Amino acid sequence: MQVVPPKVFTPNGDGVWDQVEFFYDNPTGATVTGKILDAKGAQVANLRNGDRGVSLVWDGRDAGERPAPGGVYFYQVEYDGKVAHGAIVLAR
User: Fold this and answer.
1) Which of 18, 61, 70, 81 could anchor a disulfide with 92, C-beta 3.0 to 4.6 Å?
2) Is it the case that residue 24 has pLDDT exceeding 90?
């Protein structure tokens, strides 16, 4: 899995790194889902499908469409019985 930008994104509307995108290979066509968790492990948002069909994205908003505060967040992407996870930084 490739994460773009690699670790830090800045959803401030300037058109540069306004979202984080998780690219994946899916040769079997398995369902791919993902979520964003805060530092306490609480779910902040679900990842949505990207425009290219081989990615999931997060725009820095919580489940209520409010801007999430800056900080460290964790992602979990589930596909084909596997889970990929890691940390990203939302900078405000």
Assistant:
1) 70
2) no
> What is the bridge-based pairing of β-strands 71-79 and 32-37?
antiparallel
Phi-psi region of 80 (alpha: psi -120 to 50; beta: other; left: phi over 0): left
Q: What is the DSSP letter of 10?
A: -
State yes or no: pLDDT of 26 exceeds 90: no
3 state SS for 11-76: CCCCCCCCCEEEECCCCCCCCEEEEEECCCCCEEEECEECCCCCEEEECCECCCCCECCCEEEEEE
pLDDT at 68: 97
Distance CA 40, CA 25 (A): 30
